[in-house]
Amino acid sequence: MLGSPYNHTIETPATFVLVGIPGLQSSHLWLAISLSAMYTIALLGNTLIMTIIWMDSSLQEPMYCFLCVLAAVDIVMASSVVPKMVSIFCSRDSSISFHGCFTQMYFVHSATAVESGLLLAMAFDRYVAICKPLHYKRILTLQVMLALNVIITIRAVIFMTPLSWMVSHLPFCGSNVVLHSYCEHIAVAKLACADPLPSSLYSLIGSSIIVGSDVAFIAASYVLILRAVFGLSSKSAQVKALSTCGSHVAVMALYYLPGMVSIYIAWQGQDMVSLHTQVLLADLYLIIPPTFNPIIYGMRTKQMRERTWSLLMRCLFEHSNGGS
């Protein structure tokens, strides 16, 4: 029998109440200012990257196309949570509808799964570019890139749809106060009158499979990349390859390290780490990568840096001419 064992239609709350970061209510204003600044940087930076790649035909390569999709996913991920967080911290508007909560949950966790897949695709791109440069254009065709993006998206949907269904079909007959600043699935599932262990186990196992397999393949790609790089006779070619890969490694560290720590603490760290630390880590996990990804790629990737500077100078020049 696959039907839901719960009659949740009677006991479904109209709204949930998000408390923000428990124990740090006195710092909510400063947190709102910090989040607003980071969100602004994320929106401007990722939009700028997408615009530059879209406008510059010389950047219509697989690496930059994946970067463009990553920037779009970062905007979705940050926009799913930050505006509501700022609203909670500034105006105490902490209520969120039942359906709004699960919609937010779906988009947040789907975006994180898509981002992990994109990082794997970008590592594969670097592997082909450095280890098999003569076959690069033959292997990474437009059709292959589209197929990879579709597979990454389908994987996220397949993972997230059952999780959202399981949590949303739990009976919520008690408190509707979520001890979090967004609808994080474990925090919401804890409010259920029934045992949330099945959905929590599904989340843990699914996340471990996705992240574990992605990290394993990424690590294998970079082992092969480093072997190929140090086998190059030209020092300048080594430096260029390492510089390009360094950007990817920095972005992956920003994404995977806070994510793994956040997931582990949510499961095992209730007695070791305070609740406000757990929530703050989960919040930073969603806002730090979108904020710093465009900065890292913009500053460390020579082509992006040159195109960004050129676009900004052209805009300033046209504005000054228009003003005069």
TrEMBL record:
- The protein's superkingdom reads Eukaryota
Keyword field:
Cell membrane, G-protein coupled receptor, Membrane, Olfaction, Receptor, Sensory transduction, Transducer, Transmembrane, Transmembrane helix
Q: Name one Pfam family in it.
A: 7tm_4
The cross-references to InterPro entries, in alphabetical order and at most eight, read:
GPCR_Rhodpsn, GPCR_Rhodpsn_7TM, Olfact_rcpt, OR51/52/56-like
Where does this polypeptide localize? Cell membrane; Membrane
Task: Give the G-protein coupled receptors family 1 profile domain ranges.
Answer: 45-297
User: How does the protein associate with the membrane?
Assistant: Multi-pass membrane protein
Q: Name one GO molecular function term.
A: olfactory receptor activity
Is Transmembrane tagged as a keyword? yes
What do the Gene Ontology cellular component annotations say?
Answer: plasma membrane
Q: Where are the transmembrane segments?
A: 29-52, 64-86, 106-128, 140-160, 204-230, 242-267, 279-297
* Family note: Belongs to the G-protein coupled receptor 1 family.
Question: What biological function has been recorded for the protein in this entry?
Answer: Odorant receptor.
By what name is this protein known?
Answer: Olfactory receptor
Q: Which organism is it from?
A: Tupaia chinensis (Chinese tree shrew)
